[in-house]
Amino acid sequence: MTQDIINHLNICILELDDQLRLLFLNAAAENLLEVSGNQVRDHHIGDVFQTAGELESILFDALITGQSFTGRKVTFELVSGHVITCDYFITPIRSEAGTKAIVELYPLDRYLKIDRDESISTQQQITRQMIRGLAHEIKNPLGGIRGSAQLLERQLATEDLRAYTEIIIAETDRLTALVDRLLGPKSLPQPSLTNIHEVLERVRTLIELEADPDLEFRTDYDPSIPEVSIDPELMVQVILNVARNAMQSLEGTPSACLVFTTRVDRQFTIGTTQHRLVAKIDIVDNGPGIPDELKHHLFYPMITGRPDGTGLGLSVAQSIVHQHHGLIEFESRPGSTTFSIFLPLELST
């Protein structure tokens, strides 16, 4: 009965002997550490954590002194390669059978992401309001410049002189188009129940037409995902922006690969709202990864890692997804970058 209760706890519980061998992991710990309790039972804790040196030292101190230890916002690398951030609490237990240690892990990654996403969302809203105000102020004189150039063109007698007014008009149109892109979509989403895989397949077809023939495409779809209430045209724009960025980052990458994956996540928090079910769309590439200096500003307008980039694609994509009450997140390291698009499913019912 006691073990059954522990297995139903959300707290991650590990039990270790005095040699730091794993005696028991509850279900929450198995899920967090991405291991099976049966497979790692009697294994050393170093077989679960790649970077367990400091934790091992603290565990031995706790077992020897009988003192409890607490760690805050500690980063661990798992054998799977994933990195997790946790608070932990170590409790040594002495009995006639020997000394054991109970380790409680409190994963923080989701909470840290929620705080980070909320902060970024607030900053983006402020930035977008400033940009909208500035963009409208820019568009007014641009219209005047273009109209004046057209009137002047009619008064000029030679083609050589008209060439200058044509340059003014062309550059004014280019700036107007840039300002329009800064402003984002001109209309609100028109949602309808849509099969998300049809949207993904449409994007995949478009990307394949642009991509290098050596680029490998893979899909891993969950066919059980119900139809989602989205504007399909706007969602094509979102996924196309993300996938095109991934494709361009793969230039020069040996065995370049782009993967589209769909899954359902449960009890997922977006902003301040916890959703019972969300559709998760992953776009994964095996490119060089996103530079560290760009990671905290990636969704801001005009931020780009490419010399020829405008830095508007991800900003517009995040804005559209927010209009659908969703969220875009990413994780990136050399050799693996994943952009995840989360869309609430309960809105479609």
Task: Write up this protein.
This protein has 349 residues and is of the alpha+beta class. It folds into three domains: 2-107, PAS domain (Beta-Lactamase, 2-Layer Sandwich); 112-183; 192-348, Heat Shock Protein 90. It has ten helices and twelve strands. A five-stranded antiparallel beta sheet has the order 2-1-5-4-3. A five-stranded mixed beta sheet has the order 7-9-10-12-11. Helix 5 (109-155) runs antiparallel to helix 6 (159-183) and helix 7 packs across helix 8 (232-249). It is elongated. The model has no long low-confidence stretch (mean pLDDT 83).
Q: Brief description of this entry?
A:
The protein is built from ten helices and twelve strands.
- For the record, the count of structural domains works out to 3
The averaged pLDDT comes out at: 83
Q: Going by CATH, what is the homologous superfamily of the largest domain?
A: Histidine kinase-like ATPase, C-terminal domain
Judging by the overall fold, what is the CATH architecture of the largest domain? 2-Layer Sandwich
The third-level CATH topology of the largest domain is Heat Shock Protein 90
Mind summarizing the main beta sheet?
5 strands, antiparallel
List its salient traits.
single chain, 349 residues, alpha+beta, Beta-Lactamase, Heat Shock Protein 90, five-stranded antiparallel β-sheet, five-stranded mixed β-sheet, 10 helices
